[in-house]
Amino acid sequence: MAERSKGMTGAATRATRLAHAGRDVPTFGGKTVNPPLSRASTILFDDLASLSDGKDRRREPDFIQYGRFGTETHTALRKAWSELEGADDTLLLPCGLAANVLTLLAFVESGDHVLMIDNVYAPARGSCDGLLAPLGVETTYFDPQIGAGIEELIRPNTRLIYLETPGSHSFELCDVPAYVEVARRHGIKTALDNTWATPLFYRPLEQGVDVSIQAGTKYLGGHSDVMLGLVAASGETFRILREKCDLLGYSVAADEAYLALRGFRTLDVRLRRHEAGALEVARWLASLPEVERVLHPALPDHPQHALFARDFDGASGLFGIVLKPGFAPAAVASMVDNLTYFGLGYSWGGYESLIVPSPVEKMRTATSWDAAGRTLRLHIGLEDPADLIADLAAGFGRLRDAAQAAE
Length: 407
Ligand SMILES: *Cc1c(COP(=O)(O)O)cnc(C)c1O
What we know:
The structure is a single chain. α4 crosses α5 and α10 (267-286) packs parallel to α13 (385-406). A seven-stranded mixed sheet has the order 1-7-6-5-4-2-3, sandwiched between helices. It starts with 13 loop residues before the first helix and ends with a helix. The longest helix has 22 residues, at 385-406. The chain is α/β, with parallel strands linked by helices. The chain folds into two domains: 14-265, Aspartate Aminotransferase, domain 2; 267-406, Aspartate Aminotransferase, domain 1 (Alpha-Beta Complex), CATH 3.90.1150.10. It is built from 13 helices and twelve strands. It binds pyridoxal-5'-phosphate. Pyridoxal-5'-phosphate binds next to α4.
């Protein structure tokens, strides 16, 4: 296995740390490998003194005071994830979108301004327009390629620059350090939704970003059965996020934390398999006459491939293709509807392959999307890539037949 470990600190590699991080939570008692699945609302204290003492100790990383703030199951996941991110601590949220929204709400008040990347996950855009705007917080969307030019969009009331790289439909990458440099000079916070790469393949905090966001629903859960969001940060930034999280009353079930920690242990082997399978399928798709373009950051012809090579340790299993223009909806349906191994559904990051239409042009306002043909998004699961290619080859055969029949 090729060891790719840009910027790694400490002795052990990341793969090793995935097996060991978060296993030093006191309540394990040294008896089990995994933390107990501790479901709790009430935590009982021995006496009045420790009950009142508990209020002050609630902020201690291992202390357990009340179910809403988590039990040792949550603590184990928080510690493990923070180690992978290189963060002081991590907040657990009920889903990825809750992690996006907490980050948006944490640093603004009425009258403030947010700069949001135009390729952002569409529901996070919805929260800017539908939640922040009525609260008196204005959002400006910006071209992902604007880089240091972001400075011209900064106003005296700008509080947050929010990034996502690559965009989970367009697969555009942005030059993160360029944004961080400008933000720091102006005393503005930066946040980044890192769901595509996970901190195994890209670590925003190491590039100076203040807040790293993850939809744990995707690769961390890994089995299409967990809803979870994570927000990792350090110092004063984490303190502000935690305070807002408490005020919003977010809480996560111990079952979800337990399953996410199980996913954490196998993240390295799964992601490398997703990566290899996706690259094999993407290269094959690039050779087809019906495919105009493959949107995959690890391929050398991707427009921001140089950023990928500079900043990332690997690629995950999600990418897009643009079909040549002119295929009728019915022809595309005959291809997609009859695939054997590709499910039609939202989310991704599970062990199974998925395909969905991806109307990228409808998900942006500051920039236009120049592809004339239809865009499809594929998630390559843990199946044998040869079977996936055979399945897609039959699908493209149906597309070709349907297009010819229509002529
Ligand atoms: C899926 C996703 C989310 C939201 O996660 P949920 O758990 O579905 O709320 C946020 N950001 C990105 C990039 C995603 O892909």
